[in-house]
Amino acid sequence: MSIDSLKSRIPDFAKDVRLNLSALASDETLTPQQKYGLIVACGIASRNKEVRTAMELEAAPHLTPAALAAAKAAATIMGMNNVYYRFTHLVSNDEYRTLPAKLRMNVIGNPGVDKVDFELWALAVSAINGCGACMDSHEAVARKANLSVEAIQAAVRFAAIIQSAAIALEAAEAA
């Protein structure tokens, strides 16, 4: 299932989601690797099997095996980090922020692709998972690497669109 076949499954009450999904492939704000890595990482982060499969099938022809693995790694590592750092950010007791995380996250330092692309994917997944501390951290690294505000905004827009597709499918199933 590709994005086109996924769009056919989006119910009429979510026609804006279909339109937004159509715009993903034609977006020219990002490099192809950034764009298709986002599609994979956000598809995984949506936690919806149908969306994940469609996004991976759409992106696979456009990514090297290393980039595909890195996009999957971004979704995975941020799944862990977003839980931990969201907790330390939101809990009232500041003592937790002073403790070492003791989490292995070597892939962030050596993702196997351009570091700024990985940071962009990690930022988008963090937006889906709602971790403000991680969003701040990855946005700062992306900006320091001279990634434009428009590219960063596009990454979060991709995350929003892909997440909304998962929500629309789940709402249709519940009806």
UniProtKB/TrEMBL annotation:
GO annotation, biological process: cell redox homeostasis; response to oxidative stress
Reaction(s) this enzyme catalyzes, per UniProt: N(6)-[(R)-dihydrolipoyl]-L-lysyl-[lipoyl-carrier protein] + a hydroperoxide = N(6)-[(R)-lipoyl]-L-lysyl-[lipoyl-carrier protein] + an alcohol + H2O
Cystine pairings recorded for this chain: 131-134
Enzyme Commission (EC) number: 1.11.1.28
InterPro entries reported in the protein's UniProt record: AhpD (IPR004674), AhpD-like (IPR029032), AhpD_core (IPR004675), CMD-like (IPR003779)
Keyword tags: Antioxidant, Disulfide bond, Oxidoreductase, Peroxidase, Redox-active center
UniProt enzyme class: oxidoreductase
This protein's record includes keyword Cell inner membrane: no
Catalytic residues as annotated in Swiss-Prot or TrEMBL: 131 (proton donor), 134 (cysteine sulfenic acid (-soh) intermediate)
SUPFAM superfamilies assigned: AhpD-like
Highest rank taxon of the organism: Bacteria
Single Gene Ontology MF annotation: disulfide oxidoreductase activity
Annotated ranges, domain Carboxymuconolactone decarboxylase-like: 98-175
Protein task: Antioxidant protein with alkyl hydroperoxidase activity. Required for the reduction of the AhpC active site cysteine residues and for the regeneration of the AhpC enzyme activity.
PANTHER family given in the database record: ALKYL HYDROPEROXIDE REDUCTASE AHPD (PTHR33930)
Stated family: Belongs to the AhpD family.
Protein name, entry field: Alkyl hydroperoxide reductase AhpD
Protein's organism: Kaistia hirudinis
